[in-house]
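Obj.: predict assembly geometry.
Materials: sequence records (below).
Method: joint structure prediction, all chains together.
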Amino acid sequence: MKDGTTPPESVFTTTLDKMVRWARAGSLWPLPFGTACCAIEFMSVVSSHYDLARFGAEVVRFSPRQSDMMIVAGTVVDKQAPILKLIYEQMCAPKWVISMGVCASSGGFYRAYHVMQGIDEIVPVDVYVPGCPPTPEGLIYSILKLQEKIERGEPSHWQIEAERETAQARKQQLVGV
Amino acid sequence: MAEFVAENLRRRFGDALERVSDEHGDLTVWVDRARVHEVLEHCKRDSELDFCFCMDVTAVDYLTLGGTPRFAVVYHLYSLKTGKRVRVKTGVPEDDPVVQTAVDVWKSTDWFEREVYDMFGIRFEGHPNMKRILCHRDFQGHPLRKDYPADLRWKLLRPDDLLDEISSDEMKRIRARSSYPISE
Amino acid sequence: MVFKDAALTPEEMPKTTPVPNPHGRMPTGVSWEPIESGAGQAVARARGVRVERHLVEELEVDPLAEDLMVVNIGPSHPAMHGTFRLKCWLDGETIVKAIPEIGYLHRCFEKMSEMHPWQEVFPYTDRLNYMSPFLNNVGYAMAVEKLLGIEIPQRAQRIRVILGELSRVMDHFVCVGTNLVDLGALTNFWYLFRGREEIYSLLEHVSGARMMVAYGRIGGLMRDVHEGFEDEVRALLKSLPAYIDDVDRLITDNRIFIDRTRGVHGIRAEEAIDWGWTGPCLRAAGVPYDVRKAHPYYDYDQFDWQIPVGTTGDVYDRYLVRMEEMRQSLSIVEQALDDLPEGPVNIDDWSISPPPKDKVYNTIEGMVAHFKLTFEGVQVPPGEVYSYTEAGNGELGFYLVSEGGGHPFRIHCRAPCFAIYQNIGPSLEGYMLSDIVAILGSLNVIAGELDR
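Observations (raw structure tokens):
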């Protein structure tokens, strides 16, 4: 608005917002960035017994352009790190990341010379799922938690990181660095 | 058990064999580094031994146990005809970690030798592609050495483009012969 | 139609006319067949492609056709295998050069095992071939037991055989399932994973974990099997053949599957041996080498079973070998179960196998033994040993070097996939891009084992 205040939220925009959030949460298309054993548990989750399709994640897309949730299932080693970053950056906003298993969350029990100690060194993570491998129920619970987070309207960690970066860039611009 | 293997090798390479032992049912033969290629070739070509499989090539670092030489390159051979196995070990000193490659004897030693180079720093002379295989291209040091700390990581910024594994002559040859095969 | 928005009108668009082959005739010294390797010629012949020399010389070849396209497959790719990379130079759809790169799951198993006592290496071995974790446990336990010079009780041996063969069936389920998914046959994937879930239920009942069981121990097993183990396994023996038969009916005589896999990536027996191949891929090439028959352990020579052997070693043969191996494994499980002896599942030596808890809490010897095992690890005498078993993919070898302490001095795992995947570079020349998925799926390359 002209006097510098933000416009009040109307009923129309809040309802629209809620609908968009509900739609986003109900149709999360996963990108299984599967590397190791957790990928097999992920395959079990999408199989007929623990069907993930009933939660909206029917379409498993291996292309980053066509998916909005990346499930990093398995250990990410230092050799794989640039590829993970590239795939993450190729995803279109809004995007969420689930770090499945302890190897992706914190390196697991591999405190070693080639293993990344958690993917949050390079990508922002929304939900961490512990377990080695996590039981399928655990993974489904994490997707439900992510859905709740989206429906609550919380910004995804991608958004938080992006906002932090723009704030930093703007500050640098003002300071004249 | 596998006495005839030890006998055959002693007859042919008496002076090159440093030690022969047979513990836990495994025949182990220590060979001088300069003659190891000869010994391996004999193991494969000899009709009595006929070690057609080279199951494994690996190395051990004896730094913490003291003694020389520091490394030992270990070959595990298996014969389908006789069903016998033998372990050929050769000592490799720290200041000159080079061994002649066995790729011309068995093709399976290809990647195993690359792994030994990656993990221990032992080069194999004559290997067609002596490059790191498991650790990434910006990795420095040889991790399975005893003086390498277990959690020392190196950062990789860009993946390998693998263009160094294909020579320009090979590219020219491939380009020259490229054309569509005709199908009915 | 006039395209007003286009930058150039249709009349202005450059015309592409085929330019005659700038070489004129084919350059001398180059054989006309673009596929020089024997396998590729077999492929060409199998597909009925006949190449006529005179037609080539009159052909006008578009110069753009001479350019090769580079396709990078992996390490993150839709084919449902592990993380490995294949950089291919393509001439149309035919591969002229392929360079593999591995190491995308190098989790430093060998260094980690030097940092932990002997018995704490079991979870690391689980994650080597993560499709059949118990087989790796068995392989490692056998190696340490060989170095210690002990023999485990008969009951433990039988249970290792039963659970090992079920793990092998699990491994082949995933191999066949994912191979078929990549070829477009999704239904079998659901069927076979349903079977896998049933085996998971049994493993969860026995050890507490679905996949990474860590059930093997030095000197036996983690604990005895539960009440009702036999009934559960018998129920499995009834239901699993149904899944195998379902897939068999759908796939084995399927025209599309046969067209896509017959004659693809055949390999001669001598070549397979030279490259160090073992396991179902070697048996499909015609070599009847199976560690369980050649060097029997745990009474495998007393069970009545056969090794399926193929002829050409192509993808179809590997599929058939795996299907038959599953049936043979289930027959072994049945025979082992019929003859399951009573008794302890752990060796009665407290310096190797932990004492029972009531002895730990009530006797001083038990407490001291437990303390020593936990803090110092199993004391293995100095020496070295190479022990080999038949894992899902071939000969899984463990080369252990001990300096006499509670920690391993050196453990090397001879992974069967490592030897099998090495010749993918030279052997893919002449095949098409769509053959790669069939080939990779049939080799059953598991990155955990490949990179350790």
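Conclusions so far: Chain A has one domain: 16-176.
To do: check interface contacts against the pulldown list.
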